[in-house]
Design a protein that fits this description.
The protein has one domain: Beta Barrel (OB fold (Dihydrolipoamide Acetyltransferase, E2P)). The longest helix is centred in the C-terminal third of the chain and has 6 residues. The protein has 182 residues and is mostly beta strands.
């Protein structure tokens, strides 16, 4: 029996990934990013959303595609939510080259996740075929809430920006992140 699920298809340059429908909160067109000192390559900056610093992920680094990093212009940000392993909810942003596309995925489209795509990060839950290309379904909990000791390779986890994490918003400047725990 074939089952169906609704998802969002995320385009990030030459690649695509998918997330579950409830994980997408909002799409921001032409997001304004704030620079942050010493950010790793997978974090393209900070977005201030409702007075909270939100880390912006470049999926090319998370999924380690071969695409050169300076060849893409991001026009959208998918604001997503994730659970952090306890009962709290966190927020993150995924930079996109176009607005997310709603799709229906069937169990008949499922394909095996290659070792190359799975990578050491473990951020790929499953994979399906779409227009003759593999599309990973990403685990936002792993992308945004993992700790450095839990991941290896070029991709390291996003820092924690939940309340009490040590990341704060400066009150003397217009909504900028002021510090990050190391």
């Amino acid at each position: 029996m074939t089952t169906e699920a609704q998802a969002w298809l995320l385009s990030y340059g030459q690649g695509q990934a998918a997330i579950a429908v409830p994980e997408l909160l909002e799409v921001i067109r032409h997001p304004v990013t704030e620079p942050f000192p010493a950010l790793p390559p997978w974090c393209a900056g900070i977005l201030i959303w409702r007075d909270q610093p939100i880390p912006l992920v470049d999926l090319r680094h998370v999924l380690r595609t071969a695409e050169p990093c300076n060849t893409v212009t991001f026009s959208h940000c998918a604001l997503v939510r994730y659970s952090s392993g306890d009962t709290s909810i966190g927020f993150g942003g995924i930079l996109l080259t176009q607005a997310p596309e709603p799709i229906v995925v069937t169990s008949a489209e499922a394909i095996a996740v290659s070792d190359e795509l799975r990578g050491p990060q473990g951020v790929v839950l499953a994979c399906f075929g779409h227009q003759n290309e593999p599309v990973p379904i990403i685990d936002l909990d792993r992308v945004f809430s993992s700790r450095p000791s839990e991941m290896s390779g070029a991709c390291q986890p996003i820092f924690d920006v939940r309340p009490g994490s040590g990341v704060s918003v400066a009150t003397t400047q217009p909504a900028r992140a002021s510090r990050m725990p190391i």
